[in-house]
Structures are given as structure tokens and as C-alpha cells.
Amino acid sequence: MKSLGLRVFGLALAVAATFGCSGDPERLKREYVESGDAYVREGHHNAAIIEYRNAIQQDPRFAEARHKLANAYIQAGDGVNALREAVRAADLLPDDVEVQLQAANLLILAGRFDEGRQRAKAVVDSHPGNVPAQIALGNALAGLRDLERAIAQIEEAIRLDPNRSGSYTNLGTLRAAAGDVARAEEAFTFAIDKDPGSVPARLAAAQFYWLSSRTAEAQRHLDFALEAAPRDATANRFAAAYYQATGRPERAEHHLRTAVDVESSPTARLLLADYYLATARSEAAAPVLQELIDDPALGRHARTRLATIEYLAGRVDAAIAALDEILKIHPHDVQALIARASISYDQKQFAEALAYVRTATAADPGSAQAHFADGRVLAALKRPEDATAAFNEVLRLNPHAAAAQIELSRLHLEGGVPDTAVRLAATAVKTEPTRVDARLLLARGLMARRELLQAESVLEQLASALPNVAAVHAQLGVLKQLRKRPADATASFERALQLDPEELEAIWGLVGLEISGGRMDAAKTRVGAAVARSPRNAGILTIAGRTHLLIGNATEAESLLTRAIVADPNEQRAYPLLAQVYLRQQRVDEARRQFERLAERQARPVAALTMVGLIYEMQDHIQDAQKTYERVIDLDPRAAVAANNLASIYTEHGGNLDVALRLAQTAKAALPENAEVSDTLGWIYCKKELWPLAITALRQAVEIDPGSAIFQYHLGMAYARSGDTVQARQSLQAALKLQPDFEGASDAARILATL
């Protein structure tokens, strides 16, 4: 058995490494597809995408993998990539009806009607009784005929009556739908030229420019429409939506009240109440909603909003009772389900919240709000792939949903993909320029990409516009730290704490500066004051515990981190820190329990369970370690550290050598420069009497770590079995010189005596 200390402390650093596979391409591509299929069954479509793409890397003409990849992209809400892979699969499988129809339907959805028509027609010609093919062909022909013929007919109408404004408006709308933006704008301009006072023409143009992110032109046409018809209900409702979406909610109230005065409809009143709720004016929303509670169509929606007001006022039990009463009568009411989920979410009852939002999405798959709530809950449950899929579905339903763009940006930033995070945050800023969280995420993404000047520009603009937002100054402090300006960083962090004494990033930033400057007493004083001020803030307690751990005060670190977990059992940063305390104190059982508790709070606790397995090995509880590593591999077949250690256990304790070899190859692909991994692989080759392969792997282990007696011993044994007595003698002598009493020393001496 190899040194457990080496494995624990050498491989624990690699728990979070990027994993991969190597070996025979034909076998590997099948294994990748099987792994992708398993992820699909579990609903982890983004993970499945990675596996199917790995399969295609092994064989670019692997049509089955491309077809399955297209399906996974569809489930992940990525239509562009789904279309690309479906067409490639169809090109590779011209006689597969299912694959051809998938490509045809995706082409039609993408507006490529002629290509869709050709593929659908080919299936109909070969299978005339295939109903889905007939439907696909009909959809393609309808798409071609309707759009093109409609445009041609409108153009003919314009030629017959060039002065009719409405014809140009219709033409502009159709051209915009066809993606011809330049000619669409031309048509809207013609429409307004023919009838400058036309409210429909002005509103159509305003909407076109708004969706094109040309707000100045949109505002100009909206102003014309409102001046021409100040009490037009449609114009006022459009104006209210426009002002709220562009960060000027104070201008929306007048238009919503005008729409209520003109229409006096329940829908207009509900929109006004929603405006009041969105602007934190519950006292104004309540009387409007009370007038609606008996409306047969909107009454329950009004009652749902009144329950929300109860909750905001701190009357939680009353809010829950009201929502439960609504759901008893209308169990699939989406708004009530989302409101109920929101309360559970705030109370950190995430499993309960998920049940409510899943009922909501099943009741109305087209509700962007329900999918957004689903994404928030999944993110809280530490299921980033599923959360990403939910937010992508929001964007599919509403491409301009800045809130979903922001959440996706945050997920990608946390997942180590700053390029995507920056792109999404930049889009959110463009959609809603006044959102602080979007600009902060953009700055954080730019910092992750080391584009510090651009990040500083974003943050300085924010600080100038919003000088009293603590999070902005905290991020400025982080930036100045990165730019090696500690005095400026200190000033920014201190300003953040003046605005919000519980701003965690600022507290940790100042503590980090004090520790790096050798001012340990100052760091202790700072966290002590923060804890005294906020004794139940789990984040502050965790920072204080981490600080005492860094400066070597394990007893105080243990106390603070334990308090953090009691204050908030979901404070996941506290668990591994507390485990470190226990490991330093040789309290191994307690360290293992902390990692086990952390694992219970994670959807895919690969790293936490790997640490549990390592601790079991330290205690020589081999069967427990084996079972734990097997759980890790079930969660992630590419988990390199668990794969290596499990392979070693199988090798040393009578397990299946073929399985051990596959695991070791997995670990080797992910950690090619790790000596322990190379040694594990080489020793398995020795057991299988594959001497040239064994020598290659074991020589690499020795080259990386020539001071390991175990590695030298294994290499010497491989040389001896292969007949190279000179090299065998050299390696075995080196092993015994490095450590005369290592495990296997007697065997090394015995073999050496025979050479």
C-alpha cells in the first residue's frame, strides 16, 4: 500500500481540477455518449452537452452523438447550436427519418423555410404516409408562402394607394419579422411621412426603435403619439411599460392612471397596482386591489398581491394562509404558486420552494416569471447546470429579460467562465442601463479577465452616479487591490463600511490587507468589532473564523465557525474551514463530519465527498473510503482524485484490475503531471504484466518526484520483471537509500539480492 500522507496532501489540492479521459477513441466515444445519456436522464442537460461534444471530438462523424447533442441543446434552450448539430447529424444520416425531421423542424423554427421544405419533402417523397413529415412540409410551405406573399401583397397595396400610411406600417412589421431591419425602418419612415399624426404608426415605430436599442428615436415617436392623442389608452399603457423598462418608473404613474381613467377596466387597474408594488408603495396598491377582489377573472390575482403586501409588512402567517386558501381552490394558479415559492425561498426552505415553482412551470410552460423563479431556487440549491437551463428558458421566452441575463452572468462568473459572464452582463446593461447589479457583474467579469482599466471605468462611473452604494465601493476596493494600490483599496473598503457595516467583501478586503501587512492584532480587532456588532451574521462569523485560522488561533476559529453554522446551516464556506481546524488539531473524525455535513447541502458534492474519502484513508478505513469514492464516481465519472484513489484501492485490495485501469486512465488524463497518478497507473500495468507501459508511467512518476521511495521501488520492480537488471538495481537501491523502512522495503531488498 502506498503512503496515505502523500495521497492526502498531494492529491487534495487537485480535487477541483478539470477532468478528462484518454484511451481508445472508439471506446471512449461510446463511454462519453453513455455518460451524456445518464446526465440527460437526471435532467443535467449542460453536463450532457459536454459529454456529447467530447464524443464528437473522438469522432467528428459520430452522427448519433450529434443527434443527441442537438436534443440536449434544445433542452438547454440553445436553439442556434441545436440547429447546427441537427443539420450535421442529418447530413451524416440521410436515410434516418427522425434525424431528418428534427433538422427540418429546427430549420423552419429558425426561419430557413426553404431548407426545411427540402428536407421535409425528401421524407414525404420516401415515406408518403409519414404524418409528422407532412406536417413539417406544410409548416415550411406556410412559412414561405405567408411571409413572402404577405410582403408582396402589401407592396402591391402601396403601389395602388401610395398615400395610405397603414400599409407602410404593416410592411415595416413584416420586414422586421423577416429580419430585414434596414428595409423595415424604411417602411416605418414612409408610413409616418404619409400620415405624421397617425398614433398607430408612431407607436409601431417607437416599438421598433425600442427593441433595436435606439431609445432616442423611440422616445421621439412616443412623444408625438402622446401629443397627438394624450388620452389614448394604448399609447399610455405603451408609455408606462416603456418608462418602467428604461429605468424611469416615476414617469409611468401618470400614464397608468390615465389608462385607468379612460378604460376603467380591471386589467388597467391591476397594472396600476403592480406599478405601485414595484415601486414599494404598498399603501397605494392596497385600495386598488381591494376594488378587484370580487372580479371573476382577476379577483384571485388581486388577492395574491394583497397576500404579498401582508408578507412585506411582516405578517408572514397571514400571507401564507391567504395564498394557501387561493391554492386550495386554484391549485395551478401560477401567480399564487410563485408568491408561495418566494416566501419559502426567503425562509431558505428551498426544497419546498422548488415544489411550488415546478408546479407553476408545469401549469404554464410559457411563463417566463415561473422559469425565473425556478432558476433562482435551483441556484440556491447549488445546481448550476439546472439553474442555467431555467434562466435560458426565460430568455427564450423573453430575450430582453435583463434579470435572467444577470443571473446567468453570475452563474458563469462563479463557474469560471468570465467571457460569457461579461457578454451577458454587458447585454443586461444595454437592456436596463440603470441596474446596479448588472454593472457590478460586468466589472467583476472584467476583473476576472484581468481587464482592470475597463473594470475601473465601469466602477468609477457607478460610484459617481451612486456615491452611497456600499457594494460599489467594495468592488472598487477589490479592483485597487488587484492594481497594487493598497492605500486606495483601504479607502474604498472603509467607505463601503461607512455605508454598510455588514458589507462582507469590504470586511474581508481590509482584513486581508492587514494580514498581508503583518498587522495581525489589527485584523483580530476588526473582526472582533464586526462580530460584536452583528453576532448572528453567518458571513461575518465565517470571516472572523477564517481570520483566526490564518493567524494560528485554532480555538477561537473553531468557536466562530461553529457559531456561523448554527446561525445559518447553509453557510457553506464555514464547513471546509472548520474541517481545516480539526485536521490541524488531529481531530480527524470531526473534520470528516464537517465535510459530510457540507456534502449534505450540495447537489453534486464531488469535492466534499472526496475529502471524506481521503480522511477515511488516513484512518485506514479502506472499505469506507472505497464506498465514498464510488459515490463520487457515480456523481462525476471524471473526478480525477477519487478515480485515482479508488483505482489504488482496487489494485491493493483485490478489486477488478480492468476497472482499476480505466479509473487510473481517467485520473491520468485529468492530472497528467501528477506523480501519484502516474505511479498508480504504472503499478496497475505492473499487476497486468504490461511492462513497457508500466515503465513509461512509473519513470514519469520518478521524474516528477525523485525523492519518493515508493515510486523508485515500483519502477525498480517493473525493470526487474522486464529483464533490465541494471536499471532495476539502480532504482531499488535508490528506494532503500531514500527510506530504508518504507512499506515494501523487505521485498525490494529481496529482489535486489537476486539481481
Question: Describe it for me?
Answer:
- 77% of the residues lie in helices and 0% in strands.
- It is mostly helical.
Q: TL;DR?
A:
This protein has 755 residues and is mainly α. 77% of the residues lie in helices and 0% in strands. It starts with a helix and ends with a helix.
Secondary-structure map with pairings?
Elements (H helix, E strand, L loop, with lengths): L3 H8 L13 H18 L2 H14 L4 H13 L3 H14 L4 H13 L3 H14 L4 H30 L4 H13 L3 H14 L4 H13 L3 H14 L4 H13 L6 H12 L2 H13 L3 H9 L8 H14 L3 H14 L4 H13 L3 H14 L4 H13 L3 H14 L4 H13 L3 H14 L4 H13 L3 H14 L4 H13 L3 H14 L4 H13 L3 H14 L4 H13 L3 H14 L6 H11 L3 H13 L5 H13 L3 H14 L4 H13 L4 H14 L4 H13 L3 H14 L4 H14 L2 H14 L6 H10 L1
How much is the average pLDDT? 82
Low-pLDDT parts are 1-23, 144-175
Give the overall silhouette.
globular
Largest sheet: none
Number of strands: 0
Helical residue percent?
A: over 70%
Distance between the termini: 24 Å
Structural class: mainly alpha
Strand content: under 5%
Radius of gyration: 32 Å
Number of helices: 43
Task: List the defining traits of the structure above.
single chain; about 750 residues; mainly alpha
